[in-house]
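[job 0412] stage=complex_fold ligand=iron/sulfur cluster status=START
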Amino acid sequence: MSSYAFIQILRRGPARYTVDVSELRILSIIPPMTQLNTPYPSTAYLTGFLRSRGFKAEQADLSIALALKLLSVSGVQAIHGQVSALPRKQQTAATRFFAEHFDSYRATISPAIRFLQGRDPSLAHRIASRRYLPEGPRFASLEHYIDNQQQEGDPLDWAFGALGLQDRAKHIATLYLNDLADVIRDAIDPRFEFVRYAESLAANQPMFDQLQTALCAPHSLVDASLHELTLEALSLYLPNLVLITAPFPGNVYGAFRIAQTTKQTHPTIVTVLGGGYCNTELRAMNEPRVFDFFDFITLDAGERPLLALTEHLQNRRPLDQLVRTYTRKHNYVDFKEPDIAFSESGTPTYAGLPLGDYLSLLDMLNPMHRLWSDGRWNKLTVAHGCYWKKCSFCDVNLDYISRYELATTDVLIRRIESLICETGQTGFHFVDEAAPPKALKSLANALLKRKLEISWWGNIRFEKSFDAGLCQLLAESGCIAVTGGLEVASDRLLKLMEKGVSVEQVARVTRAFSDAGILVHAYLMYGFPTQTAQDTIDALEYVRQLFAAGCIHSGFFHRFTCTVHSPVGKHPERYGVTLSQPLRATFANNDINFTDSTGIDHDRYGAGLKKALFNYMHGLGLDLDVREWFEQRGSDRGVNKRNRRRAMNAVPQTTVPPNLIERALA
Ligand code: SF4
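[job 0412] stage=complex_fold status=DONE, emitting structure tokens
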């Protein structure tokens, strides 16, 4: 055999091609769109692992690259070209404003981006003056603060005072970018957002048809920019194996576009899709057209499947011995081999990612909420999976939750030190499903002992082991914030969902965190099986009291969705719901419709819950009756006092005593 190893990749029809894989050159790509402030960590994990096994591995973030290409002088010029060609009927407030102020946008876009990248802090003075950046329709949101505060003057004075110059400028520059995103959406590509792109084409799509049609359509300006960036990355790294990770439905279309460009221009490159979207939605895929874009799709933790795949590409393993991998020839192959232990999965590396290019944005004037968009965080996990793995709405049957594995504190400390050394940055986000309290305690002690100064935040369960002493210790070790699920604040429903916490316990735990100076974010839910209107109103009253008592500082209401992998999806009868007949699915399969025996219309409450929470996060409306947030629909929509009263009376009064949380804390 020659010094070159060759592999035959079967393609649909008679055509075959060969790939020289004597040396694998691997490129991992983050497709658009994810976050703008920090790289999504999947390629950092993969690249770190592959390098630890001796592979030549590189990575590229085409999400931030695409955003920066559009938000550049040439980008806004190209946008302007399309806005100018819009027929009058299709013009919107955002496109009209952009066209009128185009010269100003062209002059300010590069300085504004440099400011948001932290490269030119002194520009804050000019931005904060509100005479520098053009202020389009998104700036109307500032009036909201005036209304609520019933104050005169610049509403930003309320949020930032006289000295919060950098933050004030950051918020103004973020609104300016949001205006530009609206222009792109209105004039060029209605599927565009800064944190997701064409999400509806992939979210819960049982068939591939819509995605296929979109992929066959001519390029929009966004697609064309992504095409160019893909070609640049391919010519820079010359890979023969491209791994594309799709964590969410909002970057699946981008992933397929990148694969399409790769296959059209470099047909011998092997393309592989993996990531959270595949792990949850593509578990029963049977769609040959997908293999026109990807040669392989791997499921669950990528390390073992990728090792098997590289052996296969180097002719050392037959195709039918791949691990958790879809192939065109065999559809799904799962040759049983143990996964790589979490402690041996290597240290993530950000090498090759443009760490200085990410944008620190300030969308919402809430100190906890900004952590998701402001500043760059080194991302790590304390453990793989969840130690609790019981919640009935969660994908507890899937590997990313069910396989719980802990690395030792020493391994974690080594990873932290290595990331600080590589990036020069000491901010860490532990992106666990639920970081275990014992491991956090051990980590905190180790950080203090080694005098390793970091700032960190992460996801936890509000369980009672987090007492005042532990919260204090975590704060001393650098913990600045925690996030956790309160879900529906109702003891009956928390029991039904097997959350393992009660409302009063959550109050005590969150208060212990907040007393230690740690910010708390609560994930909230509505629409859980058997949840009544009374439950919803009472849950909001609990949430109001938790905000008022300073236990939690921010939150987010999700509508419950039943997934096929969750206990509710597996045993609907235990939760009083009937699942709809499953649709014929050859592509994605995750959410499933259901009928709840209570028959309640949860849509009626969604807007009110979100409005209440938005106000609570800004410290507003905490003394209002929770019924005030709910308006009646249609012609009864409450705009005057009488209608508001009528709307309020249509919503049940809370049965929760007004001082219940206070009493629980006492
Ligand atoms: S919801 Fe969170 S705590 Fe519950 S099983 Fe899932 S990951 Fe674990």
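Residues 386, 388-391, 394, 396, 401, 433-434, 461, 485 surround iron/sulfur cluster (CB under 6 Å).
[job 0412] exit 0
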